[in-house]
Amino acid sequence: MRDITVLSGGMGGARFLRGLLHGIEHRLLPGVAADARVTVVANTADDLWIHGLKVCPDLDTVMYTLGDGIDPGRGWGRRDETWSTKDELAAYGVEPTWFGLGDRDLATHLVRTQMLDAGYPLSQVTEALCRRWLTPTFGDRVRLLPMTDERVETHIAVPDADSPSGRRVVHFQEYWVRLRAAVPAEAVVVVGLDDATPGPGVVDAITDADLVVLPPSNPVVSVGTILGVPRVREALTATAAPVVGLSPIVGGSHVRGMAEQLLTSIGVEVSAAAVGLHYGPRSGGGVLDGWLVDEVDAAAVERVAAGGLACRAVPLMMTDLDATAAMAAAAVELVAR
Ligand code: FO1
């Protein structure tokens, strides 16, 4: 195996990618070439315009994580960050103040917005930013592709007693950052998704791959949105590459984030088996060939296998690089057979 494509959201996907690349570098992945190339197709529906700037959380989290610029504690934004501009904006009473844009991080959004304004598509902007963050370490062996160059945004309907309909719609970032996903997500709407076209290289990255991985990202607003880009599902059905996923749900709950709330809002049971069957087997119109669940969910293996998927229970906590590389190795082995 030489060409691996990963459909990734933010933190969970980025952590998995670090372990995958560690596994490649240290030859820990059976059957994967030492010079294997990784293409990341990243979710862009978390993106938002704020203070006149285009912020791309999942692209930036993958880019900063792989480029070692990420703040390891937060899992997003820059290490060694300062917040003077955020404080100054608050001093002017400028809203929103609930979304933290650090001074170092702002430079990324200024460069991105300037290039977008000059007419460059998001894919070329991302390539330019990655020349700083990825090329020095990985050369051309790692590519970061936006799932689409067009604007798409995940909006969430939440209960609102003050409105006639009893609900109001907020941007995903407001749902997650300001509301802390502490209220039910009554509906998830990804504005613009149905009319989006796959970004440059996205379909080929899937059809030409030797392996496609769905990492433990959010199955609704990260992997789910990538799967919702027209032609992506068809590419997954058509590819000769095996497609393997790793459960983001362990022991009936998410490890981080808000997958529980969002799975509930789309009527999918919050379990490792249910998420795997939600993605479904390619033999039955789904997108997967194999599905890894954590050891605590070993009882789910039989149900997932009965649903037409190769399935195995292995440790799925990304506690360090070697643990994550072992997960990647298990994923490769599960579908290499
Ligand atoms: N997450 C927070 O919990 N609070 C924030 O203030 C915040 C700011 C922020 C700024 C830039 C960025 O790239 C990410 C940021 N995030 C913040 C994380 C973000 O909400 C998540 O990375 C994803 O959108 C969800 O996966």
Corresponding CATH superfamily: CofD-like domains
Q: State the share of residues found in helices, binned by percent.
A: 25-40%
User: What is the topology, as strand order, of the major beta sheet?
Assistant: 5-2-1-9-10-13-14
By CATH reckoning, the class would read: Alpha Beta
Shape: globular
Query: What is the subunit organization of this protein?
Result: single chain
Provide keyphrases for this structure.
14 strands, alpha/beta, three-stranded antiparallel beta sheet, 337 residues, binds ligand FO1, seven-stranded parallel beta sheet, globular, 14 helices, Rossmann fold, 18% strand
Describe the protein in words.
The strands form four sheets. A seven-stranded parallel beta sheet has the order 5-2-1-9-10-13-14, sandwiched between helices. It has a three-stranded antiparallel beta sheet with strand order 7-6-8. The two termini are 13 Å apart. The chain has a single domain, classed as Rossmann fold, CATH 3.40.50. The chain has 337 residues and is α/β, with parallel strands linked by helices. It is built from 14 helices and 14 strands. 38% of the residues lie in helices and 18% in strands. The site of ligand FO1 has 17 residues, from helix 2 and helix 7.
